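User: Hi! I have a protein structure encoded as tokens and I'd like to know what sequence might fold into it. I'm fairly new to this, so please keep things simple.
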């Protein structure tokens, strides 16, 4: 349901440095085998932690960066308005919950690059439609989400986040935000999207509402999200 947003694997040489800088080219929403390998290996590094809460930690860092880049985005998160320091954000259960959901949304794409249309794209479309009802959310914010992810990736990966790797990840970031945008702009519910989301929720081992779908900016009334304070 994401139009031409699915990532298609291509067998060809890695892109040149010049191509790697052109991240906004709509024709580049496909991955070479080399780019796929780069995403797989760097994702392993990003999530390789002995801490069982690594998803939370990575997501918290991304959300911190989002608010640093554009403080106005806090308007979409009234429950976070009083969190003025990094320590306060880390200690807030809902903030950690949002961070975890965010990373799970990214993971659903990375883990299903060869079959995005089965669950990842439908769930992101569904997520976009849900955001139509979030007061204070603007689609322009999605560019900030992309920038925040790139900043955290660069900080974590260091030299491994070179031009080619950055270009590959930008495709993934753009696919996520573009698919959410696509869902946001839809006026009706797609039965296939709903069925996919329901199937994912049914099969998940985590008894936490909405975790299967992840979240870019989930704004709900949950207080614990299945986490300990």
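Assistant: Happy to help. Inverse folding works backwards from shape to sequence: for each of the 229 positions I chose a residue that suits the local structure. Here it is:
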């Amino acid at each position: 349901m994401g139009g031409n947003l699915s990532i298609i694997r291509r067998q060809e040489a890695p892109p040149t440095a010049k191509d790697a800088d052109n991240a906004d080219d709509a024709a580049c929403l496909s991955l070479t085998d080399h780019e796929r390998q780069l995403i797989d290996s760097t994702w392993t590094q990003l999530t390789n932690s002995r801490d069982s809460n690594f998803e939370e930690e990575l997501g918290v860092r991304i959300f911190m960066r989002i608010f640093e880049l554009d403080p106005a985005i806090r308007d979409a998160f009234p429950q976070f308005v009083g969190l003025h320091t990094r320590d306060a954000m880390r200690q807030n259960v809902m903030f950690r919950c949002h961070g975890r959901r965010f990373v799970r949304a990214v993971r659903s794409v990375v883990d299903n690059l060869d079959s995005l249309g089965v669950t990842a794209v439908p769930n992101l479309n569904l997520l976009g439609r849900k955001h139509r009802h979030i007061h204070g959310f603007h689609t322009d914010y999605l560019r900030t989400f992309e920038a925040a992810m790139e900043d955290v990736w660069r900080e974590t990966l260091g030299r491994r986040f070179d031009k080619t790797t950055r270009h590959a990840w930008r495709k993934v970031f753009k696919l996520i935000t573009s698919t959410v945008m696509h869902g946001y702009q839809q006026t009706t519910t797609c039965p296939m999207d709903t069925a996919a989301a329901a199937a994912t929720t049914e099969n998940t081992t985590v008894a936490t509402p909405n975790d299967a779908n992840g979240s870019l900016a989930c704004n709900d009334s949950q207080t614990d999200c299945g986490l300990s304070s």
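A useful reference point when you look it over: Confidence is low (pLDDT under 50) at residues 1-7, 9-29, 191-215, 217-229. Feel free to ask if any position seems puzzling.
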